[in-house]
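Worked Example 4.2. Read the sequence first, then its structure tokens.
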Amino acid sequence: MSTAHPMDRRQFVAGTAALAGAAALARLAGAEDEAPAPLRIGLVGCGGRGTGAAENCLRAAENVQLVAMGDLFPDRLASSRKYLAGRKLAGYAVEDKHCFTGLDAYKQVLETDVDLVLFCTPPGFRPTHVTAAIDAGKHVFMEKPVAVDAPGVRTILAAGEKAKAKNLGILSGTQYRHHEKFIETIDRVHDGAIGRIVAGRAYYNVGGAWHRGTKPEWTPMESQLRNWYYHCWLSGDFIVEQHIHTIDVCNWVLGGPPVRALAVGGRLGRTDPKFGNIYDHFCVDYEYPNGVHVMSMCRHFERTDFHVGANFDGTEGTAEPYQGVIAGGKDWKYGGKATLGTAYVQEHKDFIASIRAGTPLNEAAFVAESTLTAIIGREAAYTGKAIAFADYMKSDLTLGPETVAMGPAEVRRVPIPGKAR
């Protein structure tokens, strides 16, 4: 597995600029003095994040058109279409005949003439969807995380290698990797600004999360799918679904994934059965190579202090990428204007430029590693055992049911450390 951090945005821009005057490398690249050919995109998963990703992509570059949409549920598709149409985006061009619902909606989107597909469904479906898209010859944007178990992670790694062989791009929804403040801070860390890293801390301490309730007409499976966040086979638990952002920053700073994880966690405030089988707090000791330990904490408790961030201690100073600050012998503070909002668009700008240059970005490996990093933290808490990254990569434990159908659905028990997984 690759452990190097990806090309930063400045290097990327310099590399693609060198290709700007070349003849078209693909249908998507126009002639030097012409506007680029339309980039046709499809959206699969029309919830809030999917709708936002589509808008981000449409705003990222000229001649980008959203032409197909799919979702499990007609009401979610309809609300997304209404929102996007109301934004009066030049690239919104979805016809009724290219709108699909149901469990096979992703297949129908892939059968249209889209060039790029945005996958924003629950993470449990990500490996299947991404593999199908690469097999169909489509570029992929995949929201994080990219799997909920080790077999899913291996599937994404394989899809990434297949994409490379087919010169297809894969972008992941880890916006910090395209955020100027993070890039400049971490570049300085890698250049030795804080010396040798000796320890780190990562936080995703927030309040509650959404819940859509239930309705008498919903089957148990539909209720789980609509409230997917609270079911581990769909979300991976919130350490995987949400805290992956900060965990990915740790892997980026430290040059790759940890060696092992030891953790505690549980369910104190979110105990109602409506909250499925996930925890509401985790604390993980991640051990990285060379004996570097990162304390990783995340929790969902209402009316508590909010803190999302990461700090790294070195032999010559400290770094805080979320604040864009280095303190020590080489004091520095980010002075630009990039925000998280701009990063949501910037990642699509970078991706589209790479596709049109004929050198599509492929971020499958590092986001798969970060996903498994979050998974071993979860499993260490669930089992009460130390979990080695390399060993768990080989795990055959799958979380999802053998088949997904709108009918009965088991809610698995909340894991208890020391009990059989």
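Now turn to a second chain, presented in exactly the same format:
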Amino acid sequence: MFRKEFVSIEFGSKYLKIFKLDSGKKKPVKMAKYEIPAGYIVNYRIQKPNELTLILKKAWKEQKIKEKSVGIVIPEFSTYTKVLTLPRLSRSELDEAIRWQSQDFLPVGGSVMIMDWQIINEDKDTLDYQILVAAIEKSVLSSYVEVVSKAGLLPLVVETPSLSLTRISDGDDTGKLVIYVSSDETIIVLAEGKKIVASSVASSTSQNEIIQSALRVVNHYKATKITRVVLGGVNLSQDFFNNVANSFKVKVFPLEYKGVSLDSGKFQEYAIALSLQLKNPEQPSDEYSINLLPPVWEKHYRSRLQSIQYWTLSLIISIFIWSYFISVVGVYFALSMKAESLGSLQNVAKTGEAEAVFTNIKDINNIITKVSLIGDKTKQPQELINKIESRKVGGISINYYDINFDKSVVSVRGRASDRGALLAFKQSLEEDADFSEIDLPVSSLVNQTDIEFDLSFGYLPMKEKESQKIKLDI
């Protein structure tokens, strides 16, 4: 079974926050905040990476966290976001056009920048794409990733506070202003649904200066008419809510997410890290999500994670099989000694002990059958998973495997870019003689694009093989 679960790490200038939800994404299982001493991060750039790594190691040890996969939220001020409008092109042409236009708003050349983008809307009249672009200097990103990597952790996704806040405050597609006040800074995001129009950072904790900064953002992007303000963060007074409402002349709503069991104070403090937990760490090449971790880096860390998972699964299976084997050997020698003490079968036929011996021999044969079956079936999980991966087509990502060795059934869960890709993947599996009875629920085909699917099928090489039995010659 392979899950893409991870721990959120939120970097601020003063604090580092750790957060993780349970597998059902309903309850927090890890939640902690560690102070970052002055001088470790200056102007959102890491100055003391080794010391930050030690803080992470300390956090993992104190919180007794076993999970190595992590998602990272990097400071907003270190990144650049922009919405572009481009004609409908192929993916490769679209990527090239985005990188060309990005030169107009990025402060440095594209060669020293890491960039990812996401299609957020399609104009029904012109068929143009609206695309959200996020970028960061390669040196800045690598410094955060390196700190995490040196702590023995495996980063799967990197995003910004504005992306996290837009996700967790999502509502209708009308304009909204999100203001999030933390102990580090204030994040201001102007958005339309999932579309980020602009983001800004206010370093002051003065409520009046925060409101003035937000007003400047709204006035600069007058084309986006806000219908509400979403206000979140720590130490917010009712007067602040009232002042925001009076300044923008719209309704003000508190930032909230009802899907998680968490008191209001803790939610407000960990809202950004919590939001990252709701993200599926997809491939950076997916045009429907943003992940600032470059494809080459992502592939490297995902490969390391997969190796760890394979090793762990193999170790568990080996321990299981050897435990059975040792017990079988012990019983076998005990029975052998018992048989020798009985002498010949003719001499014990009338004693009733022969019947006990035969019963024990039958029991050990059953155990050997199970051990043999387990050994035959469980020695190839990596081979099976590699085989499934080789049948994937473009637009398919798999984030969950469930291998039922007893029933020789495999279940996979993942995401398809569109219906055509999903059907092509199913057909690809059907063309392999080792897979049978491929079941794709009709519910997986309801949506046209961005489809979450569950698919199950039989794996013939796991079928039961004939095993050797212990025989008692008479």
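Notes for the reader: The two ends are 46 Å apart (CA to CA). The CA atoms of residues 116 and 134 lie 6 Å apart.
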